[in-house]
Amino acid sequence: MKKVLVIVPFAMSEEEVGRRRKQLDAVKLGPDIVFEYRAVRCGPASYTSHHDFALADFSILDAGLDAQAEGYDAVCIDTMSDSGLSALRSVLDIPVIGPGRHSMLVAQMLGEKFSILVMWDRWKPLYAKTLGELGMRDKCVSVRSIGVQPDNKALLAGKEEVVFPALLDAAQKCITEDGADVIILGSTTMHEAHGYLAERLDVPVINPGPLTYRLAETALKLNLKHSRITYPAPLSPKRNMIRAIGGAMEAKGA
């Protein structure tokens, strides 16, 4: 039985983590793989600035640092920012999958141009960073926001009647006005809207969280993992320092 750790990027209760776990309902996986979810123990309240991005990288590194030693076969990061992905790849010899870059790469398998559909404008720097790293700025025709501040814990619960039609309207503009032939949901927190959008749009709609689960399963079945040339291991690992900083932040409720 293969075991995959899904790192939830915010400190939250088990009930709140359960809303993230619902993403598993969107993909059929084999009986020989299980996914376990773990919220970070410290980190930013939201991802709205480069200050937050730096803290997010650390918090996810802290959460997944010992995944391999704990018996996990792969790690999935539950945020389109791909926070901590490169750092975890440098310290782990198991596949580490982030939804941001992989959603964009899969979009190129399905069409020529894509748009990223988002809740609010403060997320846009996250996509600009990944698009730049991948050299895919010309493939993304738009990043459209509906101007609604997200709730990282309650997700879209109670907002469906307002948010779902707004997302649909923005997605249609991505297609008719911007020229997108694939839509990417801009956050794993938007997964509850995927079915609604996919049923009403004539182009593929990528649900980033479930995509990472399928890719993790595929990587394990094909015995694939990241390149050590791209992600070299540290010469002097500082695991104890990372753990100490994370523990201190957790104790202070940071």
UniProtKB/TrEMBL annotation:
Entry-linked Pfam families: Asp_Glu_race
Any one GO molecular function term: amino-acid racemase activity
Family membership: Belongs to the HyuE racemase family.
PANTHER family (UniProt xref): PROTEIN DCG1
Name of the protein: Hydrogenase expression protein HupH
Record organism: Limoniibacter endophyticus
